[in-house]
Design the sequence.
């Protein structure tokens, strides 16, 4: 089980129509690769975030498959076009079945 | 021996006054675009010209690492700070009090605290580091167990307490009752340890800005501690760093929280008087 998983997102509060904005996301997660062994020589089971998506008003912006080699607290920074005011929805999918979401509104003038 | 200590105490008294007054220095960057951080400042007078400038370790890092520290969203140390902020508000120990019950809002009650530690504690009659003060609160006032001196809980709490002091000049007193401890720290700084026979000064005074194998040597300033180390994916405290340094000389290290490291911390902190508090910073 993953402890202390908290998503964080930064999206500008407003933008001009058609502008490309920069979005930063971070989720605290230990990203246990499944390759390491504990003190007794037993494998520590894999526990990672395996997928991350971002949607804007229902339309997909980015969809990422994540692999065990990604280090702890995965951080993604990407750009998106914003044609109109709306809501960004961010979703992280954990190996243990948990789904973490966050939303941010943006006003477009 | 007594005589020397006394003499340097008096000298220190006269000199530190001028060192602290200096308002000069170069702002290297801003955190979140609104906290200016002085990364170069004329060295304090008590260094007797050993350094011309005190330079923050930030200056020696590459631009991507520097950028991570310039925005709190990008600074991974803030994850630990958020967790410590929860601990701050959580009742601990048999007394059932939280840090906040006595100290209120950390962003108000702890302004400037990080900048003056380690400092003399009159009641205890000893030089106290921030970590010793936290552990003292836990055991004496809260009836809780002390934390591991350089453990993750302590590092996170130190980082949280440092936040309201960011941008304020380090201003550690070296005179009065702490003078003898400061002298002890200074002597350690110039003592060669380990099979490699390296003193702190061998690397951080005589060779800063040079490479030691693949590492770019800084002045070893501690104004930015605890720091988030990318290679450890976690916070490292001042004493944790000291242990690593002494180990790298191939010596048996002192323990974190030992009187030796407390003395060394006081001395090393005073070498950075005038630099801004940067903690929690990002280092490779």
Sequence:
């Amino acid at each position: 089980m993953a402890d202390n998983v908290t998503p964080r997102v930064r999206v500008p509060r407003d933008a001009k129509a058609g502008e490309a904005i920069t979005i930063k996301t971070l989720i605290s997660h230990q990203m246990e690769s499944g390759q390491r062994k504990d003190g007794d020589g037993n494998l520590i089971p894999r526990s990672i975030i395996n997928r991350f998506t971002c949607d804007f008003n229902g339309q997909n912006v980015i969809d990422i498959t994540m692999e065990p080699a990604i280090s702890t607290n995965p951080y993604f920074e990407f750009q998106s076009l914003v044609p109109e005011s709306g809501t960004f929805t961010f979703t992280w999918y954990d190996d243990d079945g948990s789904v973490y979401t966050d939303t941010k509104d943006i006003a477009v003038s | 021996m007594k005589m020397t200590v006394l003499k340097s105490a008096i000298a220190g008294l006269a000199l530190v006054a001028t060192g602290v007054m200096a308002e000069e220095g170069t702002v290297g960057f801003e955190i979140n675009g609104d906290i200016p951080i002085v990364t170069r400042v004329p060295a304090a007078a008590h260094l007797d010209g050993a350094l011309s400038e005190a330079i923050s370790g930030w200056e020696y890092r590459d631009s991507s690492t520097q950028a991570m520290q310039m925005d709190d969203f990008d600074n991974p140390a803030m994850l630990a700070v958020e967790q410590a902020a929860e601990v701050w508000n959580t009742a601990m120990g048999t007394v059932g009090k939280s840090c906040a019950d006595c100290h209120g809002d950390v962003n108000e009650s702890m302004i400037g605290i990080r900048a003056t530690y380690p400092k003399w504690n009159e009641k205890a009659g000893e030089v106290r580091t921030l970590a010793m003060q936290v552990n003292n609160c836990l055991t004496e006032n809260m009836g809780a167990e002390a934390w591991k001196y350089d453990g993750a809980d302590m590092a996170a709490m130190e980082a949280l307490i440092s936040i309201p002091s960011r941008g304020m000049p380090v201003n550690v007193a070296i005179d009065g009752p702490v003078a003898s401890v400061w002298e002890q720290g200074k002597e350690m700084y110039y003592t060669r340890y380990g099979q490699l026979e390296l003193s702190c000064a061998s690397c951080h005074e005589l060779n800063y800005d040079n490479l030691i194998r693949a590492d770019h040597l800084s002045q070893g300033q501690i104004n930015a501690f605890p720091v988030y180390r990318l290679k450890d994916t976690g916070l490292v405290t001042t004493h944790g760093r000291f242990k690593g340094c002494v180990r790298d000389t191939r010596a048996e290290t002192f323990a974190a929280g030992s009187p030796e490291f407390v003395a060394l911390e006081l001395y090393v902190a005073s070498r950075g008087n005038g630099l801004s508090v940067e903690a929690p910073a990002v280092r490779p």
In short: Strands of chain A lie at 7-10, 14-15, 19-27, 49-56, 59-65, 75-82, 86-94, 99-108. The longest strand of chain A covers residues 99-108. The interface with chain B takes residues 4, 6, 8, 10, 24, 26, 28, 71-73, 75 of chain A (CB under 8 Å).
